[in-house]
Design goal:
32% helix; five-stranded mixed β-sheet; single chain; 10 helices; 365 residues
């Protein structure tokens, strides 16, 4: 029996098992088995794809990477043509795009790489329609831009989330706050800093035994589920921000557009009429959490034409590395103007946290 058959068998078993107090341990074991088989499927796929040269990953360039995924014929290539200078083939039939096409969004002085990936179909996580290659590229992105058809409601969103969930991509979630460490001996040490309502000690032991782990230390710092604990054990989960982008709003009712626009992490656009594309670019910028830092020479005005693009929460030390890696060794102090300071200019050290559109002047020894 192959891995795919084993996965289908466990999924059928989960579907026909009633959810109650008596079956929660059985369901926890089945979920652990399912996660183990899926991770095996992913590692096998990576090996075969690299051996045959089937993958279509693109070299990372620019300041950030956004992966554009969705079902066929939802307007991914049209959006790429509208907001980048790249030309991707567009047509009214499905699977117009057969490989990964990169484009560059130039916004606020930053170069954001946008990847137009082939359309995903149901069952992509099991290898249908080159789905595994598409999803593996999405794992390397900073933000996932999920293109959906506004006329189809929430069906496409649910199916795509399920496909990405099954290959270890968690959308708009943070990693579970669980401390887990495998030890050489001493048995299992399971502790929690609060009352656990979704999992108990016995289920934790059963899940660990399923993975042949008999010596480990586990500390729950939040009320987590069995799925969260399995994610921590496997350690190969990717937590990405996702922006749900509903296209073709010009073909549906205003009430439906209003409903979709009010959902969390969602935005409504029309590529055909060019509606709301400027707000889409602004939202991508916000999700990427990029900031602009301008540099200034002594006795000269700041250079507002060529900003340094850095991540939110970066310090003066990160700015020094972005300018040149040897500056930190000869750094004396820096003068900063902007929102991160109490007064302008403020003399700061390497640990000062920068804000968007700050101006910095670095003074060396």
């Amino acid at each position: 029996m192959g891995i795919l058959e084993k996965i289908q068998e466990v999924e059928r078993e989960i579907a026909r098992t009633q959810k109650n107090k008596a079956t929660e341990y059985h369901l926890g074991l089945l979920k652990a088995k399912l996660a183990k088989y899926r991770s095996q499927l992913l590692t096998d796929t990576t090996k075969t794809a690299s051996a045959k040269g089937e993958g279509f990953d693109v070299m990372k360039s620019g300041d950030a990477r956004v992966a554009l995924i969705g079902f066929p014929s939802v307007g991914k290539s049209t959006l790429l043509n509208l907001i980048t200078a790249t030309r991707s083939e567009c047509a009214s039939y499905e699977f117009t795009t057969l490989t990964c096409i990169p484009g560059v969004i130039e916004y606020n002085g930053a170069n954001i790489q946008l990847l137009d990936l082939p359309g995903i179909i149901e069952g992509a996580s099991q290898g249908k329609g080159r789905g595994r290659q598409v999803i593996s590229v999405a794992r390397t992105a900073d933000v996932v831009l999920m293109m959906l058809d506004a006329t189809k409601g929430d069906i496409q969103k649910t199916l795509l989330e399920k496909e990405l969930e099954s290959v270890g991509i968690r959308l708009n979630k943070r990693p579970p706050d669980i401390y887990f460490k495998i030890k050489k001996g001493g048995g299992l040490s399971i502790n929690s800093m609060l009352t656990l309502t979704k999992i108990n000690e016995r289920m934790v032991q059963l899940i660990l035994h399923e993975y042949k782990i008999f010596n480990a230390e586990v500390v729950f710092r939040e009320d987590s589920t069995a799925d969260d604990f399995i994610d921590v054990i496997l350690g190969n989960r990717v937590y990405l921000k996702c922006l749900y982008c509903y296209n073709k709003i010009d073909t549906t009712s205003i009430e439906e557009v209003d409903r979709l626009a009010r959902q969390p992490y969602s935005i409504v656009i029309s590529c055909g009429l060019g509606l709301n594309l400027d707000y889409l670019l602004y939202q991508i910028w916000e999700y990427l959490q990029l900031i602009r830092v301008y540099t200034k020479r002594r006795g000269e005005p700041p250079d507002f034409n060529d900003p340094l693009i850095l991540r939110k929460g970066c310090t003066v030390e990160h700015v020094c590395h972005a300018v040149h890696r040897t500056i930190v060794d000869t750094f004396k102090y820096s003068l900063v103007w902007g929102r991160s300071t109490k007064y302008s200019p403020q003399r700061v050290g390497l640990l000062h946290v920068m804000e968007d559109e700050d101006v910095i002047q670095i003074v060396k020894k």
